[in-house]
Specification:
heterodimer, A: 570 residues, alpha+beta, Ubiquitin-like (UB roll), Alpha-Beta Plaits, Rossmann fold, 3 domains, six-stranded mixed β-sheet, 15 helices, 23% helix, 16% strand, elongated, B: 466 residues, alpha/beta, de novo design (two linked rop proteins), four-stranded parallel β-sheet, globular, disordered C terminus, binds flavin mononucleotide, binds iron/sulfur cluster, binds FE2/S2 (inorganic) cluster
């Protein structure tokens, strides 16, 4: 393999590698703004300049010319080179700012000029704290500015579209946003207008930036120029904790970071996973953030009255014990772990394998990250051997049952059941929201944790098993959740950010993950389920189902694992 | 050869009896039949129909003529043509003729559009033949809208007579010429920016590599040449490479259109050999207005560094001599500035132009040009400090050679060399820098030995505004 030398250290590279990406991949930091691995390379910010050269070749022998010490003589390019656009070549020698005073100075010069017309709104800028300009100016910038004039002023609040707001003064004209609409979504909705120090991105006159992925531009914007309308001025980034997890928005299994303050999800951003969503996510998948905070079903109920968890579990167990036939609904919104335990519970009470309400709607998605399936774990339940509810048969099946268990779903809203069908049946419901239309018909209500509050597995529509991590706390202290959040057995207020108020009970939902509530019922039925953690549940499920082979939490890690076997048609 | 080219000796030979070939004194030459009556399209016929040269032969002939681009960079035209990759029947190839002419002080291509458009059209057809190109875009500065119509008419006539289009002159060589009006910015004349503009995109220059010969219009092999450059090609074919090479300066030969402006009695476009003495060109243009003394010359458009008259009197107009003198031939658009000119105001005006025309793509140019203009405006209004001069020189360092295209260099040169060569005038307009080293930059050729703590009773902080 060919080699190149960066700051005196030699590396092997693949032909075609660009120097900047190569540096970043090998832990050599080079400041940059306009370069993004998923976009074309315009080399316009000029921040990533390095000094580079190639070995001097003897014209006749085609061998490198050596100096007195026997080292190849290097022909340096006459100018500093933008490393983002520089092809690595055999024997190339690169000096970054770590190694070269000249490069460090050039980078500082560039930052000085970049800040000349920059408003330095940091105290009120949503990007502050995670701003590449702020960070790089701090690390590589000059000590002061020699600019003594009024800055160029530009519009401070342009509503580009329903979800994205532009502060044109903060824009450094890196064109990442315009390249995104030109190259990734190909909607071409943004372009740079005006010239020189007056230019900024804009839509065509009369057009709206309503690209279904418009907020991706706020992720890649290296400054606080583009912000999400829903999140503007809501929180400083350092006030929030950021948890890597998986979105429950649809069947794609989009990898996300969940930003939480005081037990509320305030923001969702995509997390890089080249196998799934690369760097992107649709706007719709972010705007569900409020569903984790609002209208949550909180606190168990029996016969329409709030009660405590023990009483509710007792009531559920009693109903199941006394019932003749039991019909169990699993859920494509629930985790594999929860559904697996639900299947065991069904078997324990002599019920059939749970059914689930399929949501797949051919053509409703966009063929990219908005799936035709609004449920995140259809593959997971299929792989457990659950079959979809058959509209033609479900009436008779309900008819025949005395007790109906509905886990994390809403058959009434889904049009699968109605009040008449459930007349005289005992309904045990595990709802997430008070808006659940089956809720008024439920006898025992056991609120269930959502994807942002639990540990578990979703299998996306492409057969990739990915792990959820809890980002916000629920009211019941649970050792597994605590451990997973890094709290251990210590005090919860020691984790998160110094600004979090973990003790604020009002923001904690009184719900339980299925892997806590289902065993509690099983225990009461004399069929205890001995699992220390959801990890053990998943390990057993993966062991017992060929279609889930290999889907252990260890294997999933942060990026998930592709499952080899197809789901067996149940 | 003398050690220095700055001899003041003309390389233009017997220029007083020079007979114009690009803009010959023929009435209505823009009309195709008049052009034909005067030998027009004979070069095309000789090459395309009669086989005087095959494509490579024509390229070699142009190389041998020593023709260097007239668009500003002065690169060998034949060499540029030879950079086109071998013909791949799967891949279209393009020629772009650059008629965006927007550099202040440059107004020569418009003369060709107006008086001899067929010479350029014939040159385009020949260049297409030499490089096996089937489509040329002729990009005419948008503000020249009258010439767009005028040239389009000439193009239509050339099509009608079979000099353009399918099966030119009955041969199997075909090429199309598309006239396109420019998008209205100086930057559209930068060659890669022009390509984006032709593609219908925002005229942002592209990074090189890849060079246009590899990836130009729509990512296909493309050559870009200036209008005047291409207009020279039929002349080379008709009269031979050695005729061309024998005109004017040895290393930068040929006839050239000098655009003369400024404080002269008869500003205008004058065709003469390269290598003319600047003093002879002053004479050609009728001498200095009002008998004043000339103090500076901008030899080749506003981006070329100004020369003090003491230097300019020894200069001839060719790339080598002007480089040695510390400037460049550029577009051969000379501006003569007389003693009434305030070099600070002049430099400020030039800086304003580049600030206004920066496309804004890259940081040093986008925000550096504006900063420069602000500093110069402050000095010009008598509010500047001597340390501002050092800051300006520092800014030139921060901009030159660090951008996507050469506009940032074009903006920095007049400032750098204006200050270097006319520092006395700049300093005269500056307030004394409050104390030595007030500038954050180390005072190389800078801080002008001013006493500490002057400037009234204001409190002074290093590097800050009092
Ligand atoms: C900012 C900028 C503006 C330019 N404008 C023009 C122009 O208006 N006309 C032109 O012929 N060349 C212009 N050029 C030079 C072109 O990039 C290019 O070198 C030239 O068209 C090549 O033609 P030539 O080889 O025949 O000279 C400009 C260059 C720069 C950097
Ligand atoms: S974009 Fe960054 S540097 Fe600019 S105001 Fe915001 S935080 Fe500060
Ligand atoms: S808005 Fe942001 S992403 Fe777009 S060009 Fe400006 S700095 Fe770059
Ligand atoms: S140097 Fe100036 S004109 Fe050229 S690309 Fe950069 S910003 Fe645009
Ligand atoms: S990252 Fe290389 S120039 Fe912007």
């Amino acid at each position: 393999m060919p080699t190149l030398t960066i700051d005196g250290k030699t590396y092997e590279f693949e032909p075609g590698d660009k120097v900047l990406q190569f540096c970043l991949d090998h832990g050599v930091e080079v400041p940059h703004f306009c370069y993004h691995p998923a976009l074309s390379v315009p080399a316009n910010c000029r921040q990533c300049l390095v000094k580079a050269g190639t070995p001097m070749m003897d014209r006749e022998t085609r061998e490198p010319v050596l100096d007195d010490d026997g080292n190849p003589k290097i022909n340096y390019f006459p100018k500093l080179m933008p490393s983002c656009a520089l092809d690595a070549t055999e024997g190339m020698v690169v000096h970054t700012q770590q190694d070269s005073e000249e490069v460090a100075e050039a980078q500082a010069d560039n930052l000085e000029i970049m800040l000349v017309n920059h408003p330095l709104d940091c105290p009120i800028c949503d990007q502050a704290g995670q701003c590449p300009l702020q960070i790089q100016a701090y690390k590589y910038g000059p000590e002061g500015s020699r600019f003594e004039f009024e800055k160029v002023h530009k519009p401070k609040r342009i509503q580009l579209g329903p979800n994205v707001v532009l502060d044109a003064e903060r824009c450094i004209n890196c064109t990442r946003c315009t390249r995104f609409t030109a190259e990734v979504t190909e909607t071409h909705q943004l372009t740079i207008i005006n010239r020189g120090d007056k230019n900024h991105p804009m839509t065509a006159p009369g057009e709206t930036f309503d690209d279904a992925y418009s907020m991706c531009t706020t992720d890649i914007c290296p400054v606080g120029a583009l912000t999400e309308d829903y999140f503007r001025f809501k929180a400083r980034v350092w006030e929030m904790s950021k948890t890597p997890s998986v979105s429950d928005f649809g069947g794609k299994g989009i990898n996300v970071d969940l930003w939480v303050r005081n037990n509320e999800v305030l923001r969702i951003t995509p997390r890089e996973n080249l196998e799934v969503n690369e760097y992107w996510m649709p706007d719709a998948a972010r705007l569900v953030y409020s569903t984790y905070n609002e209208n949550r079903a909180s606190g168990p109920m029996v016969a329409g009255r709030p009660t405590d968890w023990d009483a509710a579990f007792d009531a559920a167990a009693d109903a199941l014990r006394q019932s003749g036939a039991v019909l169990v609904f699993g859920s494509a919104f629930g985790t594999v772990e929860d559904n697996y335990l639900l299947g065991k519970l069904a078997a324990a009470v002599g019920a059939e394998t749970p059914r689930y309400i399929a949501r797949h709607d051919e053509g409703s998605g966009d063929g990219w990250l908005i799936s035709d399936d609004p449920a995140p774990n259809t593959q997971g339940v299929e792989r457990l051997g659950f079959s979809a509810v058959d509209a033609a048969m479900i009436g008779a099946q309900v008819e025949a049952a005395d007790t109906v268990v509905v886990f994390q779903d809403d058959p009434v809203a889904a049009g699968v059941l109605d009040a008449a069908a459930l007349e005289g049946k005992t309904v045990i419901l595990f709802p997430t929201h008070t808006t659940n239309e089956t809720l008024p018909l439920a006898d025992v209500v056991l609120p269930v944790a959502m994807s942002v509050e639990t540990i578990g597995t979703f299998v996306n529509e492409d057969g990739r098993a990915q792990m959820l991590r809890p980002a916000k706390m629920i009211r019941t202290a649970n050792r597994s959740l605590m451990m997973s959040m890094g709290v251990g057995q210590g005090r919860p207020d020691r984790v998160g950010t110094p600004f979090d108020r973990w003790h604020d009970e009002s923001k904690k939902v009184d719900c339980q993950p299925g892997w806590a509530s289902i065993p509690a019922i099983a225990e009461r039925l004399g069929r205890p389920m001995h699992y220390k953690t959801p990890r053990a549940v998943m390990a057993e499920a993966a062991e017992g189902h060929a279609a889930l082979a290999g889907a252990t939490h260890e294997a999933m890690g942060l990026l998930g694992v592709a499952l080899e076997t197809e789901a067996e048609p149940a | 050869m003398a050690d220095t080219l700055l001899t003041g000796e003309s390389k233009a030979g017997d220029w007083r009896s020079y007979e114009r070939v690009i803009l010959p004194p023929v009435k209505d030459l823009h009309q195709i039949d008049v052009y034909e009556q005067n030998g027009g399209y004979s070069a095309l016929k000789a090459v395309v129909r009669d086989g005087k040269f095959d494509p490579k032969g024509l390229t070699d002939e142009v190389k041998a003529s020593g023709l260097r681009g007239r668009g500003g960079a002065g690169f060998s035209t034949g060499l540029k043509w030879s950079f086109m990759p071998p013909v791949d029947p799967e891949k279209p190839r393009y020629l772009a003729c650059n008629g965006d002419e927007s550099e202040p002080g440059t107004f020569k291509d418009r003369q060709i559009f107006e008086y001899n458009p067929h010479l350029m059209i014939e040159g385009i057809a020949l260049a297409c033949y030499a490089m096996t190109i089937k489509t040329c875009y002729l990009y005419i500065r948008g503000e020249y809208w009258e010439y767009v119509d005028h040239v389009q008419k000439a193009v239509n006539d050339a099509y009608a007579k079979g000099y353009l289009g399918k099966n030119i002159l009955g041969t199997d060589f075909s090429t199309d010429l598309v006239v396109q009006a420019g998008a209205g910015a100086y930057i559209c004349g930068e060659e890669t920016s022009l390509l984006n503009s032709v593609e219908g995109k925002r005229a942002y220059p592209r990074i090189k590599p890849p060079f246009p010969a590899q990836k130009g219009l729509w990512s296909m092999p493309t050559t870009i040449n200036n209008v005047e450059t291409l207009a020279d090609v039929p002349l080379i074919v008709n009269r031979g490479a050695s005729w061309f090479a024998g005109i004017g300066s040895e290393k930068h030969p040929g006839p050239v259109l000098y655009g003369i402006s400024g404080h002269v009695n008869r500003p205008g476009v004058y065709e003469y050999p390269t290598g003319m003495k600047i003093t002879d060109l002053l004479e050609v243009a009728g001498g200095a207005r009002g008998g004043k003394k000339i103090k500076a010359v901008i030899p080749g458009g506003s981006s070329t560094p100004p020369l003090r008259w003491e230097t300019a009197v020894d200069c001839t107009m060719d790339a080598e001599t002007l480089r040695e003198a510390g400037s460049s031939m550029g577009t051969a658009g000379l501006a003569f500035l007389d003693e009434t000119v305030d070099m600070v105001s002049w430099t400020r005006r030039i800086a304003h132009f580049y600030h206004h025309e920066s496309c804004g793509q890259c940081t040093p140019c986008r925000d550096g040009t504006g900063w420069m203009e602000k500093l110069l405006a402050r000095i010009d209004s008598g509010e500047g400090y001597t340390r501002d001069l050092d800051l300006l020189l520092d800014l030139c360092d921060q901009m030159e050679g660090r951008t996507v295209c050469a506009l940032a260099d074009a903006a920095a040169w007049p400032v750098r060399w204006g200050i270097k060569r006319f520092r006395d005038e700049f300093e005269a307009k500056c307030k004394a820098t409050s104390f030595q080293g007030a500038d954050l930059a180390t005072a190389g050729d800078g801080a002008s030995g001013t006493p500490a703590l002057v400037d009234g009773d204001k409190t002074l902080t290093p590097g800050g505004t009092p």
